[in-house]
Amino acid sequence: xxxxxxxxxxxxxxxxxxxxxxxxxxxxxxxxxxxxxxxxxxxxxxxxxxxxxxxxxxxxxxxxxxxxxxxxxxxxxxxxxxxxxxxxxxxxxxxxxxxxxxxxxxxxxxxxxxxxxxxxxxxxxxxxxxxxxxxxxxxxxxxxxxxxxxxxxxxxxxxxxxxxxxxxxxxxxxxxxxxxxxxxxxxxxxxxxxxxxxxxxxxxxxxxxxxxxxxxxxxxxxxxxxxxxxxxxxxxxxxxxxxxxxxxxxx
Length: 251
Hints:
Layout: E1 7-11, H1 16-27, E2 31-36, H2 39-51, E3 55-60, H3 66-80, E4 85-88, H4 105-133, E5 136-142, H5 156-174, E6 179-185, H6 200-208, H7 219-230, E7 240-243
Parallel strand pairs: 1-2, 1-4, 2-3, 4-5, 5-6, 6-7
Helix pairs in contact: 1-2, 1-7, 3-4, 4-5
């Protein structure tokens, strides 16, 4: 197993992407610590992991709450002995569909502030323990932050670009302590679009059309790549992004 004996914290683990990553980590032998605002959703994921024979714990917390994030990471380290992997996958409340020239400043800033605050707080909380350990992996998730044409995406892409800058800076400061920092980039995951959402099929098609493989990444793809990135098989990788966009994002 790739992650046997590792302790992984997944923030936003009750969501579709967070749940997929948590299940993949557990499937590779990690003890997963699920964190999120809605305990019932976390417990549903936890039950699936337990049924599959995995080790899991849950905690209700808001990843935007500095004290809650720090106290939870400290508790995991004290109880489990280490914090080896941390990944922030919370919903950031992005507002889309309105041209930037017509968007309220609060709607524009919301995803930027939420993503940067949660990414910073969760990474900092993990890094403090990883520095003492001399090892650890911090993972981030999103796209490349490049402009999106023909769709009003608000501040979402700008938030992703800011996160990529944070990833590079964290990697440059934490590498000397044996800590790796990576991000996973997709061009969007059709499975995350609610089936009853108006225009769901058109949106899914728009995610597939730009790809080279004529398909988009799945939730399972994200989980598998996250587990690989967190493992020693990727021990030489840091300060970079793993492009799992099926060719939609071209470096």
